[in-house]
């Protein structure tokens, strides 16, 4: 009997029993008031008269009507640049000890997003809530004694002036609680290695010494790490070296496109738990096994607002129009795409995070990520969000019995008209004409706007099949490997031209 594991599982089960049923709407109202009260004496709070907002009869309504939308560029140009110049009490009390360098799908590390001590505490608190939710997944006591391999960015943060910089996964890992350090793999020494290939090699070298029960990280990079371990140790699947591996915690992107290729590396069934950790905070996590949707962290330092994701409210660059309507949690509906707006304990205010979501259960505040505001494919009126593109790729996998873990596309003008030009990452031989027909027909049936576009300005579909490794090398060449880096699902024509030139050289 795993005594320690039984004790930990017992504590988690007890916490779950003792925790009262939450009310996300009430929690959000309190979070907003706490944010405004804490920041009312900052430069931002004084400028936007937070004290008057707090005294209003309808604080949340007055909040949305008083403060404009911000994205990173606007927030940095008007407020955060003062922090970089040595200022304090700008958008949050004091001065941040950390800055998250955001790469994500854009590949630009120039974004420096403040990460305050209050945000570190909020991330830890949401992490504890996620661990507590494991009580719902019926995991055996032995699981709670196994190692957890977290593959994020390097924890060797860069010291700049009075703060440290790095990706949010590296910042979070460098602040793990002391009691978790015995479970945490690959350990502090390996986690500090900056070079991703070198870090993965060290993980592979040490793999046989670890008893791993859970994995955590971006699916594409986790897959590459697993493939390396399997190849180096001449294994048939990863369970031959980690027989007690039971849980994979995905994050940042939809797991669906990776599911088939990921599970092919396994020798046993896996419990997959989705999480949503962004550079701006720990936004949501899957709290129960009956769904793959994630529960918004409504009580840990983030106030959420939602803009209906419709073409009339979205500018060409993915930003919001100034007159776009805002909904509170109490006003949202199921099965509607929303652009996510957040205000946080790091001093982001009415901030367009760039992701789109939909609610699967409003009462539980459960969501799914549906795409990115910039990756909304609507050049010729087809109105395709990333989740619809993911569904189409999953359809191709099923029809042709193949694995397609990566893809990208562009609405590209050719000599005769616009086409959706796809690149699919697949090791199998595919007849492109058959894929074109299946892809086009599926999208016509699944999306009426696409069907209308195909009868007008959208001439058709083009498909090229390349090795998935091309996508990984693109990330390595244009950004860097590992961490929070994700592949662009939709590119503009300028970026797509660079992509096609890159592919031609491979």
TrEMBL record:
GO cellular component, one term: cytoplasm
Pfam families listed in its UniProt record: GH3, GH3_C, GH3_M
InterPro entries reported in the protein's UniProt record: GH3 (IPR004993), GH3_C (IPR055378), GH3_M (IPR055377)
Superkingdom to which the source organism belongs: Bacteria
UniProt-recorded Gene Ontology molecular function terms: acid-amino acid ligase activity
Domain GH3 C-terminal: from-to ranges: 389-494
Span of domain GH3 middle: 298-363
Protein name as annotated: GH3 auxin-responsive promoter
Origin species: Cellulophaga baltica
């Amino acid at each position: 009997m795993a005594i320690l594991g039984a004790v930990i599982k017992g504590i988690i089960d007890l916490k779950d029993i003792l925790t009262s049923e939450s009310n996300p709407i009430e929690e959000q109202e309190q979070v907003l008031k706490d944010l405004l009260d804490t920041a009312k004496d900052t430069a931002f709070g004084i400028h936007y008269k937070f004290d008057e907002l707090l005294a209003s009869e309808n604080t949340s309504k007055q909040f949305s009507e008083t403060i404009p939308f911000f994205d990173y560029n606007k927030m940095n140009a008007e407020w955060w640049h003062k922090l970089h110049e040595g200022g304090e009490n700008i958008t949050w009390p004091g001065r941040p000890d950390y800055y998250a360098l955001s790469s994500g799908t854009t590949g630009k590390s120039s974004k420096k997003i403040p990460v305050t001590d209050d945000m570190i505490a909020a991330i830890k608190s949401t992490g504890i809530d996620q661990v507590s939710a494991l009580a719902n997944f019926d995991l055996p006591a032995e699981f709670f004694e196994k190692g957890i391999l977290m593959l994020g960015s390097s924890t060797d943060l860069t010291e700049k002036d009075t703060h440290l910089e790095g990706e949010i996964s590296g910042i979070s890992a460098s602040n793990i609680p002391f009691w978790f350090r015995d479970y945490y793999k690959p350990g502090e020494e390996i986690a500090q290695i900056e070079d991703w290939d070198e870090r993965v090699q060290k993980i592979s070298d040490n793999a046989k010494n670890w008893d791993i029960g859970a994995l955590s990280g971006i699916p594409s990079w986790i897959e590459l790490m697993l493939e390396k371990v399997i190849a180096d140790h001449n294994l048939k699947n990863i369970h031959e070296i980690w027989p007690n591996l039971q849980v994979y915690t995905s994050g940042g992107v939809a797991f669906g496109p990776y599911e088939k290729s990921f599970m092919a590396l396994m020798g046993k069934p896996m419990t997959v738990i989705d999480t949503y950790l962004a550079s701006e905070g720990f936004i949501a996590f899957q709290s129960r096994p009956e769904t793959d949707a994630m529960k918004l962290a409504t009580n840990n330092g983030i106030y959420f607002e939602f803009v209906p994701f419709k073409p009339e409210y979205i500018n060409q660059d993915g930003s919001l129009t100034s007159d776009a309507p805002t909904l509170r949690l109490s006003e949202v509906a199921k099965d509607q795409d929303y652009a996510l707006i957040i205000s946080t304990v790091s001093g982001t205010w009415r901030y367009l995070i760039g992701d789109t979501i939909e609610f699967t259960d409003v009462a539980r505040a459960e969501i799914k990520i549906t795409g990115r505001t910039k990756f909304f494919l609507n050049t010729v009126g087809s109105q395709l969000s990333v989740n619809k593109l993911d569904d189409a790729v999953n359809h191709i996998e099923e029809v042709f019995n193949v694995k397609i873990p990566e893809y990208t596309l562009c609405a590209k003008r050719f000599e005769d008209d616009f086409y959706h030009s796809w690149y699919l990452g697949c090791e199998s031989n595919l007849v492109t004409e058959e894929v074109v027909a299946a892809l086009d027909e599926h999208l016509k049936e699944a999306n009426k706007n696409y069907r209308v576009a195909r009868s007008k300005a959208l001439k058709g579909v083009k498909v090229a099949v390349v090795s998935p490794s091309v996508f990984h090398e693109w990330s390595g060449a244009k950004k860097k490997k590992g961490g929070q880096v994700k592949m662009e699902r939709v590119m503009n024509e300028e970026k797509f031209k660079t992509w096609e030139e890159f592919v031609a050289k491979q």
